[in-house]
């Protein structure tokens, strides 16, 4: 995953993108993704849309392209400098979107959505580090245990080192 979008959200009624910090009783504590990085409370009545859960419609009704994949395509074509902004013409926006997602559904993806996509990519590319998909797969995340893929059995806990692995085996042994 090129950009880590699990904690990044767009919040209705609040301009820009935000990093989710902590859930609270009356909403969510967020930090803006801009130079000031101001913290504020997003009320519970506002809709919080995580960027990791957003996708783009394609011409195949069963297939949608996740925003992380779209961001990766944009980064592969343009890097961090986009040729479009939210002030660009409709022709420029359509050409940009055609480069990022060639089979996007032109009836269900509006120009306002493409403008929002371009502005979100600009904010994310300025404030989050890019990590290629190969690097992300090779390096484990911080605090994430290394997986053995089921090849190596997990060591037995010290408290049950002498006990059999199957709890039903102890009841069967006790019945004899």
Report on the structure:
The chain is of the alpha+beta class and about 180 residues long. The protein is built from 5 helices and 7 strands. It has a 5-stranded antiparallel beta sheet with strand order 4-3-2-1-5. It is globular and about 40 Å long. Residues about 145-150 have low confidence and may be disordered.
Mean pLDDT level: 78
Q: How do the strands of the widest beta sheet line up side by side?
A: 4-3-2-1-5
Number of helices: 5
Helix-strand topology string: EEEEEEEHHHHH
Strand fraction: 15-25%
Extended strand count: 7
The biggest sheet, with number of strands, parallel, antiparallel or mixed sense and barrel status, is:
5 strands, antiparallel
What class, by secondary structure content?
alpha+beta
Write the layout of secondary structure elements.
Blueprint: E1 8-11, E2 17-24, E3 27-32, E4 39-43, E5 48-50, E6 55-57, E7 64-66, H1 67-78, H2 90-100, H3 111-127, H4 133-138, H5 167-175
Antiparallel strand pairs: 1-2, 1-5, 2-3, 3-4, 6-7
Feature tags:
single chain, 176 residues, alpha+beta, five-stranded antiparallel beta sheet, two-stranded antiparallel sheet, 5 helices, 31% helix, globular
In short:
The chain has five helices and seven strands.
